Amino acid sequence: MNLGIFLTISAIVQLINSTPLEDFVNNNDDLSIVKRTILNTTKTDRLTTLKYNFTSLKWFNESFSSSSIWWHYVYINIPTNLKPSSPIYFHIDNGDNNKDADGSNSLISLLASNCQCVTVTMRQIPNQPFRLKLDPNDGLKKEDDLIASSFYVYMNFKNKFPNSNNIPLLFPMTKAVKRGMDMVVEVLNEKNIEFLENFIVSGASKRGWVSYLTAAVDPRIFAVIPIVFDFVNLNANFHAQYRSLGGKYTFALKDYYDYELSKNIDTIEAYDLFKLVDVNMYLENLRDKIIYMIVGTGDEFMMPENLEHFIRNLKIQTNNVFVRVLDANHYLTGQEFSLILSIQGFLVLLSKGPSYFPKYDWKFSNSLTEGKIEGKISNLKAFESYEFNSYSARTANNKRIDFRKNTIKGPQQIKWVKNVLVKSSPITKTSLSRNVSVKISKSNYIGFYLESTLKFKGEKQYFVFSSNINIAPDTYPIGDCIGAECKGQLV
């Protein structure tokens, strides 16, 4: 076959099979507004940091929103000990476009010298605050309120727009990150810096959501670190939360609740929305990506059972999945240093290559009186020693499966108890196994998980990961809802 014909056919097939998100992200009709301006350059013995003002995209026009053109602060950290073979670490961050203060780049810049790689912080994802003109709720919005507003506009007014698939805010958030990656590549090329055009992308909360989506549409991303975001398989997790919290939803979902997403969770409009923004719809695109999820056991947004509704599919679709569960709230308060150490360990593992990744399997088995986790780790050639710990906590009662640090009424006392199973010991076998059992009570729920710590050979760093959380008894306090009765309340 003629090569030109083959390439044309391949392009057509790719176009036919592309998702609406891919179509939007790769559409360059607005490319003329993309620009960057260097704001300052900071140099130390270890690092050069370039700070840019970057205009990334145009999203619809002024008749749709009060902020159609998006701009960001982007920091590019180039260490003096840069390894040209290292991937680029790209962190997605929040920010306010109406304030002079533009936040900190310190934690991400700290990673640059340690991983001997270029690190990037891209802020103002999304641009905010602004309002969508078709939203009847007046006023400038930001964060979840802004995302929920875009969901409302899509579900109620999508027939008014020829490009209605582009309405959910996750779309421009994803495109802005892709454009930011393009900008970083341009800057490094202009400065004749030798680098590898592979990316590790991280982000917290909705930025974690965007890190998944960006990885699903950009082949340059080979690893993802979604932080405090596991709200995947949206419909299933809304229903699970309704049942877990006794017909209620966490107060942290107030913005989505106020826009009646829970009430309309089973409608065709919600189904169409989730086809566009639910990470569960992009698992095929995430095949062979390496994912290291960092979640908090006391998260006010994300319930411990969230992972259960997609982890099996994710493990099938992706090369490896590692989960680090922290005893923390949604903001990982007080866990910032631990967070950086976990990421550093993951970066060390990535630098060694896929053949060195440990394989971790776990199995839950619960009876009427006992809950059990059986864990096994194999492929340990990168490590010299190991530890096994388990953590467990009990809910206040049997009315709700509720491990949150905070509720609508204020803090609740959920205490996670550490149980040392194996102290630091040398690895002498090709695989390691450990089980943990707990007593099940009729008066509350217990959540427990296994945590493994592996020390790299000849290095100071550790790789830490855990099983999913086993919740026992494995029955919900109440039955499921259907349709509008899923509206529920906030708790």
Automatic annotation (TrEMBL):
<protein>
    <recommendedName>
        <fullName>Autocrine proliferation repressor A-like</fullName>
    </recommendedName>
</protein>
<dbReference type="InterPro" id="IPR009199">
    <property type="entry name" value="PhoPQ-act_pathogen-rel_PqaA"/>
</dbReference>
<dbReference type="Pfam" id="PF10142">
    <property type="entry name" value="PhoPQ_related"/>
</dbReference>
<feature type="signal peptide">
    <location>
        <begin position="1"/>
        <end position="18"/>
    </location>
</feature>
<keyword id="KW-0732">Signal</keyword>
<dbReference type="InterPro" id="IPR029058">
    <property type="entry name" value="AB_hydrolase_fold"/>
</dbReference>
